[in-house]
Design a protein that fits this description.
The chain is of the alpha/beta class and 416 residues long. The chain contains twelve helices and 18 strands. 25% of the residues lie in helices and 18% in strands. Strands 5-4-3-6-7-8 form a six-stranded mixed β-sheet, with helices on both faces. Strand 7 and strand 8 form a beta hairpin.
Amino acid sequence: MVYSIQGIPRGQGTRITGTCVVLSKSMLMTVYDNFFIPRILLLSDGEADSRNKWREPLQHASQQGIIIDVVALLSQNEKGRNTLEEIAKKTNGDYIMPSTLSNFIKDFVHLSKKKHAQKVEDIVLCLDVSGSMSEKYKGSSEKKINALKEAVMKFSKEKLSIDPRDRVAVVAFGTHDSRKVGVLMNPMPYNKEKLEDVVRNLKAQNGTPLTKGLETAITVLNVKGKRTNTRKQMVIPKKSIEELPHGTNYCKYCEATGKSTPGITPENWHFFEGTRGIMVFKCPVCNSLYHGMCFDKHVTRGGNAGVCYGCNAVIGVEGDLAIQTPDSAGGNLLLCPQCNEPLPANARFCGYCGYRLSGSEMANTATGAVAPGPLKSSVDSYYVPNEGELVNCPSCGYTCQKAWGECPMCGENLSS
């Protein structure tokens, strides 16, 4: 018997009785789904165009696994509330209706931050610049369009500390003329200057083509195309400084995240060896270079594949270099609440800034108990160590600082 299966909900399997056919989400995963999450972040007052056509793109978003998170910019009468709540509900997104202008900016930035720490996010900011956005925000003398711009600017300033690999695009809608629904910025690895230039020039216009705005955002995400075309590329290990071009070479992770790290030179070559015994990895797509330890900890995050900070390509290692440290690293990963560095699955504290995870935070990492004793609130610089400060973990081999006390990858005591 042959079955045609459509509309499988995200995060669930589909079970058909009779002749038993069971499909789990893991069986249907593409390379794209393993590493990326598609999101639309809608800022609107919800005063949609007539005939409720805005419901049509919701079905397309749901079928493609696109999450639509909504922050409501409502007037005093809260006219568009039901529309916006339904958009979020039908796409498994979050809905926020802040009570004050200051709360709106704070809540938007909070919702904008990564929801899936173990994955890179494809984010489209879908911005309402319709005529009603020239009205005052409820209980405030500030216009809604200015509140929108201020919130996105604040998000832009904090975006680099979240994950610079996240792709960000901007779509604006605000006129009855559907041709005026604009893709102001196509999906690209986060670029602060580009994003702020786009938002700075937004103005309230006429009409509210919410339907066209959502359709355009879904088209820009191009989830179907990415699922079809995303392939894993094998990263190139460099075991000798002689294999690199002459001149100054920099680690793309350190460069993208603003770390004050020395270049990849003969003088500091041996300081940055990763768990695989490799000093430098090279992306085969964009030729970005990575310190071995940066690649192991921040690109693959303790696993065997990740997303390049230079070009968003999915890159992995050959079988003879593949490791899994710790064994559960492919499961629940999270970011440090204090510095946003990625943490391995059984981390009890952040190896970069020293932040100790609370009991509830640790529940997400499957560790079971809080590490005893006090820990320094900040450790010595991880990226410019003296040779005498470094030690290899006796259990998993990760290059650590003695000052950490425990290996952030596997929790082994470093004093031995």
